[in-house]
């Protein structure tokens, strides 16, 4: 049977201050109870999509940054200084560069074609040879080349002979007067050799070029319009790469030293149109400082280096072993690279949206329930990504492998962050209030003192349901931050609900508000049961209340996290002592028509006696009962994820003497995650399975949400 106290008619007036009295709390008969021992929430399977990835830079990030080199060149640094910055401990030396380099321009095709194009008078003829047999094609005649069994076959119906075959075919011509068109792309230098692809019925087509003036001269690794020093640094790095590839020998799978493309270096056909305008600048960069037989390259202890480079880093280059297996290379050490983050770089920051299906496919999983990116390199890039399916299957590719599979610009992936300024509760309340509509005619005011935080927590759902700013007051005067916010809102504010008893916020504050032309309603008293009952009644006047949260002194942090969604859902938070909810609050819930309550905390914080008391009065109960406030805040965020319209989560600090921040942060209308000096696994785990919240908003100054805590959430 319900406690007789809860059946008693409560007719006493709860209190009156100036213009409006508090709503009295009469009794109501108890309703039939329906109990629920388990919480009414559960973790869903696959995370919702799309997944949003944000970051900085483009490419693997090891070695020289091409946009960094551009910025350094613009700042006046030389071609010698730029490589030395990115390849630590290296020298800038002239080495022989007349070697022949084999460049694959036809990879694994079933056929190709060659045509001679006239470059100057008398040119245009092409000769193809197979062993001791040759075929001559006049200008414009097409020679088709394909496979026939193990042989390579060249055919041309207007040539003499019309067909030849051999283990390979070589195309030559007068390079001074003839260009060779290969499948529509025009090349100046020869010979061009076509061989069978090992183990496949396709072809490999390879140009044999002099390394410096024939190969390097036509690389397209950066725009040729860049400053001379940037081009010279690029030429030195590309030259070193080519020298090492030639020294390593011909690769059987492609009959080449390098391929034409991003897997090696981008070698292109003869420049035409606007590109040709800048070609001479690149040729000069290749030739500068060297001789007819040498070119400058970076070396380490006398050896030509593996001069790796990418478009740009995310602000710091990456150690080689953080991207590829192998021992650390002394000249491929990560360096701070602010040069990569200048306005010239279009990918100094980037964002990419990836569907859930694409992400799952990239990881080879049926779906992705969570994605852990917390394992980082010293440069802050993702070292290893851990994707987990809803069935618990995991995949853990390296960060650069993930970059390529998912299609992000780099592995320097970080959730974008911002910070709400403020070092005191009144400042933070005002900052949070600025997200409430400027047109709001009502404000809610609570005490700024830590001792009164229970009233603040109960006031938060009221403010949320009214779409009103929540501000803080001192005992005898408004805080400076609150005055500034009221000044900003001006005469639009006509009413203030004061959620505090007289000893908490005194009559001088009421007078100050009235002097601004604001009508004041004191909601509740210093007594928490009176106050929560009055809030329930007031919220019931604005709409149906079907459910409420229940807190005790021990679970205020959990209630603060819940208050972020309580206002959106029109669910008040009521006060309970260790043995049950107060009679006035219970009567108010019954009167409002609430049928269910959420117990906000573990059984240690919201004891079983409270639940039993509510069940006796006919309420259905559910519990968010994790052991820590951080875990409860994460559970609440996940359970109510569809109630939030925004794209951010808000870490808010708690400590023994600082418990108001989470309730104040709730005014931002986003999930609030309770953190301490760092961010624990419940917090990071929540963001790992919540792609709908890519933005992290630290609530308060770095003395409240530390840089360490913010970084853990950002990089989770």
Brief synopsis:
By secondary structure, the chain is α/β, with parallel strands linked by helices. The strands form ten sheets. The protein has a seven-stranded mixed β-sheet. Strands 12-11-10-7-14-15 form a six-stranded antiparallel β-sheet, with no helix packed on it. A five-stranded mixed β-sheet has the order 33-32-31-34-35, with helices on both faces. Helix 2 runs antiparallel to helix 5 (228-248), helix 11 (453-466) runs parallel beside helix 14 (528-541) and helix 18 (629-639) packs parallel to helix 20.
Helix/strand class: alpha/beta
The major β-sheet equals: 7 strands, mixed
Low-confidence stretches: 1-44
**Strand adjacency order, main sheet:** 9-8-13-16-17-6-18
What overall geometry do the principal axes of the alpha carbons give?
elongated
Distance between the termini: 50 Å
- Beta strands, count: 38
Based on CA atoms alone, the radius of gyration comes out at: 36 Å
Give the proportion of residues in helices: 25-40%
Mean pLDDT: 92
Strand percent estimate:
25-35%
Oligomer: single chain
Count the DSSP helices: 21
3D structure, described in words:
The protein has 716 residues and is an alpha/beta fold. It has 21 helices and 38 strands. The strands form ten sheets. A seven-stranded mixed beta sheet has the order 9-8-13-16-17-6-18. The protein has a six-stranded antiparallel beta sheet with strand order 12-11-10-7-14-15, with no helix packed on it. A five-stranded mixed beta sheet has the order 33-32-31-34-35, sandwiched between helices. A hairpin with a 2-residue loop joins β14 (178-182) and β15 (185-187). The protein is elongated, with a radius of gyration of 36 Å.
């Amino acid at each position: 049977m319900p406690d007789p106290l809860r059946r008693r008619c409560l007719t006493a007036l709860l209190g009156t201050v100036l213009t409006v009295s508090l709503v009295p709390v009469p009794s109501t008969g108890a309703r039939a109870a329906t109990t629920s021992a388990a919480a009414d929430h559960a973790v869903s399977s696959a995370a919702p999509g799309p997944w949003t990835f944000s970051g900085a830079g483009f490419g693997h990030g090891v070695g020289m940054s091409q946009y960094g080199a551009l910025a350094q060149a613009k700042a006046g640094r030389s071609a010698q200084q730029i490589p030395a910055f990115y390849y630590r401990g290296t020298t800038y030396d002239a080495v022989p560069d007349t070697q022949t380099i084999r460049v694959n321009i036809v990879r694994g095709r079933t056929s190709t074609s060659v045509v001679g194009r006239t470059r100057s008078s008398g040119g245009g003829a092409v000769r193809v040879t197979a062993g001791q047999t040759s075929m001559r094609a006049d200008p414009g005649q097409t020679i088709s080349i394909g496979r026939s069994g193990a042989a390579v076959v060249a055919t041309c119906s207007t040539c003499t002979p019309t067909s030849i075959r051999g283990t390979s075919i070589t195309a030559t011509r007068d390079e001074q007067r003839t260009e060779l068109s290969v499948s529509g792309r025009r090349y100046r230098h020869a010979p061009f050799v076509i061989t069978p692809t090992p183990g496949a019925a396709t072809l490999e087509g390879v140009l044999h070029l002099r390394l410096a003036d024939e190969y390097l001269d036509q690389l397209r690794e950066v725009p040729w319009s860049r400053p001379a020093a940037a081009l010279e640094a690029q030429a030195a790095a590309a030259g070193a790469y080519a020298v090492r590839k030639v020294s390593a020998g011909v690769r059987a799978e492609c009959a080449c030293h390098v391929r034409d493309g991003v897997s090696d270096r981008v070698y292109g056909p003869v420049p035409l149109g606007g590109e040709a305008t800048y070609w001479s600048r690149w040729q000069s960069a290749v030739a500068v400082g060297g001789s007819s037989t040498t070119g400058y390259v970076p070396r380490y202890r006398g050896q030509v280096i593996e001069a790796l480079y990418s478009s740009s880093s995310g602000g710091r280059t990456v150690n080689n072993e953080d991207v590829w297996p192998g021992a650390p290379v002394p000249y491929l050490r990560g360096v701070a690279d602010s040069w990569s983050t200048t306005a010239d770089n279009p990918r100094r920051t980037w964002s990419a949206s990836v569907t859930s299906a694409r992400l799952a496919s990239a990881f080879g999983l049926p779906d992705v329930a969570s994605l852990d990116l917390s394992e980082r390199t010293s440069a802050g890039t993702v070292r290893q990504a851990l994707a987990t399916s809803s069935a618990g299957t995991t995949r853990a590719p390296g960060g650069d492998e993930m970059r390529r599979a998912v299609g992000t610009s780099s592995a320097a992936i970080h959730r974008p962050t911002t910070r709400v300024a403020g070092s005191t509760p009144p400042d933070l309340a005002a900052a949070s209030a600025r997200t409430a509509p400027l047109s709001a005619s009502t404000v809610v005011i609570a005490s700024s003192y830590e001792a009164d935080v229970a009233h603040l927590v109960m006031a938060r759902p009221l403010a949320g349901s009214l779409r009103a700013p929540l501000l803080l007051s001192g005992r005898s005067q408004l805080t400076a931050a609150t005055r500034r916010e009221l000044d900003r809102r001006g005469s639009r504010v006509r009413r203030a609900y004061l959620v505090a008893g007289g000893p908490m916020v005194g009559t001088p504050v009421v007078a100050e508000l009235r002097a601004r032309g604001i009508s004041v309603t004191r909601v509740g008293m210093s007594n928490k049961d009176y106050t929560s009952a009055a809030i329930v009644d007031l919220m019931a006047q604005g709409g149906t209340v079907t459910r409420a949260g229940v807190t005790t002194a021990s679970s205020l942090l959990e209630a603060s996290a819940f208050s972020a969604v309580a206002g959106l859902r029109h669910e008040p938070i009521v006060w309970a002592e260790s043995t049950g909810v107060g009679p006035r609050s219970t009567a108010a819930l019954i009167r409002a028509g609430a049928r269910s309550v959420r117990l906000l905390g573990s059984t240690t914080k919201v004891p079983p006696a409270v639940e039993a008391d509510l069940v006796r009065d006919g309420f259905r109960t559910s519990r968010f009962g994790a052991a820590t406030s951080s875990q409860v805040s994460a559970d609440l965020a996940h359970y109510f994820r569809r109630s939030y319209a925004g794209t951010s989560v808000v870490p808010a600090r708690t400590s023994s003497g600082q418990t108001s921040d989470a309730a104040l942060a709730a005014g931002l209308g986003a999930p609030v995650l309770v953190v301490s000096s760092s961010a624990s696994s419940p917090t990071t785990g929540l963001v790992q399975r919540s792609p709908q919240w890519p933005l992290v908003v630290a609530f308060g100054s770095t003395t409240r949400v530390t840089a360490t805590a913010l970084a853990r959430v950002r990089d989770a």
